Amino acid sequence: MAQYAILIFERESAGGGAPDLPAEVMAAHEQLPQRIVEHGGREIGGLALEPSGTATSIRGDLVTDGPFIETKEALAGVFVIEARDLDHAIELARMTPIVDGGVEVRPLLGIDFSGLS
After folding, report:
1. Residue 58's beta-bridge partner residues?
2. What does the pLDDT look like over 37-46, one tens digit per residue?
3. Average pLDDT, the chain
4. DSSP letters spanning 24-42
5. How do residues 53-92 score in pLDDT, each as one tens digit?
6. Range 12-38 average pLDDT
7. 4 to each of 12, 25, 67, 72, 116, how far by Cα in Å?
């Protein structure tokens, strides 16, 4: 199956920190891999990111504090799934619990994670 990155964007708190996610949203994140399997996909892995204020960006020789791109919503996490096609990936990505933001689905270029450990 094809692989897709699901990028999670959430609005950060006023100080640039991670929002306090309600318990039901955290529980939904923990249940998401199983729900994806139940819908014919598979989650390969994922990462939750520290708040954007902890990022360091590099542009050529310039190193600056903060995210590479500043938006109202910050990149909060990413996970990789296997899905039949883009429509299936979108269906699976719609199950991602979001408080105040959204997700982006991005096809991956044939990366094989099976040899990594």
Report:
1. 63
2. 999 999 999 9
3. 90
4. HHHHHHHHHHHHHHHTT-E
5. 899 999 999 999 989 988 888 999 999 999 999 999 999 9
6. 83
7. 25, 22, 23, 24, 17
Residue 113 has pLDDT above 90, yes or no: no
DSSP letter at 16 equals S
Do 57 and 63 form a contact (C-beta atoms < 8 A)?
yes
Q: How many CB atoms lie within 10 A of CB 59?
A: 8
- Collapsing DSSP states into helix, strand and coil, what is residue 56? strand
CB neighbour class for 79 (10 Å; exposed up to 12, middle 13-18, buried from 19): buried
Q: How far is CA 49 from CA 28, 35, 79, 83, in A?
A: 17, 22, 11, 24
